[in-house]
Prior knowledge:
Blueprint: E1 8-13, H1 20-29, E2 33-37, H2 43-60, E3 65-69, E4 84-87, E5 92-96, E6 106-108, H3 112-117, E7 123-126, E8 131-138, E9 142-149, E10 151-154, E11 159-160, H4 173-184, E12 189-192, H5 198-208, E13 213-218, H6 221-225, H7 227-233, E14 236-240, H8 241-247, H9 253-267, E15 271-274, H10 289-300, E16 305-308, H11 310-313, H12 318-333, H13 338-344, H14 353-367, E17 372-376, H15 381-388, E18 395-399, H16 402-407, E19 414-418, H17 425-438, E20 447-453, E21 462-469, H18 472-477
Parallel strand pairs: 1-2, 1-16, 2-3, 3-12, 5-6, 12-13, 13-14, 14-15, 15-16, 17-18, 17-20, 18-19
Antiparallel strand pairs: 4-10, 5-9, 7-8, 7-11, 8-9, 20-21
Helix pairs in contact: 1-2, 1-12, 5-7, 7-9, 10-12, 14-15
Amino acid sequence: MRRQRRTKIVATLGPASSSPEMIAKLFEAGADVFRINMSHTQPDKMRELVKAIRKVEKDCGRPIGILADLQGPKLRVGSFKTDSVMLKNGASFVFDADDTPGDETRVYLPHPEILAALEPGHTLLLDDGKIRLVTTAATKTRAVTKVLVGGKLSARKGVSLPDTVIPFSALTPKDHTDLEAALDANVDWVALSFIQRPEDIAEAKKITRGRAAVMAKIEKPQAMTRLNDILDIADAIMVARGDLGVELPVEKVPGAQKQMTRAARRAGKPVVVATQMLESMISSPVPTRAEVSDVATAIFEGADAIMLSAESASGQFPVEAIQTMNRIAIEVESDPTYRGIINGARPEAEATGADAIAAAAHQIAETVDLAALVCWTASGSTALRVARERPGPLTIGISPNVSTGRRLSVVWGVHCVIDEDAHDQEDMIDRACRIAFREGFAKAGQRVIVVAGIPLGTPGATNMLRIAYVGASAADEN
Length: 478
């Protein structure tokens, strides 16, 4: 089964989409990667979902990616003497280390690391940004704030701190447990929530030890300021627009999305755009025009993947939401302006042999009428460098490693095929042509580009490019 688009689709599983039958339907509708939200999924349920996805993968014969999304640190206020309190504009309000129930003047903040990090002028956002306060005085046990935008506040509401770098790990004890369970279940990607700095990624990588790729969710302004450092160490990033839109002014989020998409492409790392893409389809079989435009914008920008959250996890129309995304992607990628926009954002090739080969493949594809671009890729690095160029022809990634094929399922334009490694260069070219024909990318008499690393099986050694004809023998054997 091959997709008719380059942009990948990530579907979140949940109450509306946890059955094996529904997972199969979502894959048939266009899902390339399945996300398991560990905020709402126990390890035993996660293992059931992984088993069901692998069954679909076996039935369809195509690698499917699985993303375990860790909850991350949840910062919340303590309790109140009454059900809720009303914070009035201009009033003073105190956060402190006293665990007694709060009132209209103060509340317990069960995070001493926040109190230690707050400084005068720092902003605090409560209840998804509905209430805004600014710090006027702070000690290690007490912070005095002024209410800028008031409202009703109840117990255990969330706290966001857009100006404050908090010295704690992005991995909570729950995350450690969930991460080990996800690694034992052989998931392909692990997403880290609420990261602030590259050290948060390094901590997770010490645990994964290559057993899963690590995706950094960018949802805090602190992470935006160190985006390039994070990209250096992460395997991919996610533009998590929900929480980012709480901590940043909403008008800044579209620009931040563009910055992240382009930075990830320059780094040769996949980027996923997420949150509220087709929100109305939670309860409606059709999206709004603004939502269609939002999805299209992410595709025009060259995002590797676009993601559905509640739309597929708990909505009434999960299959229709996937089908809608699929249709939007196909339409955008066939738009006459698409190729010009994608090429306009093309980064300069880095001064490496692998990037020179990938750039040459793109240039040849622009000049010569080619049916497909075929990459032999053991680790996935060759396919990533080619995808960075956003070539016109679709790319076939051939790998002997199923884990590589699954991880590449989130990468722009790469159709993954698992096959044994080539025996020599001629076998490599011959099988590349046969696979291109078998998978429906090329017809007899058409040409393909073959990109690989010699000697075979050496990770990151992309150094060979060859144009090959798909002969009649490829058609006869298939």
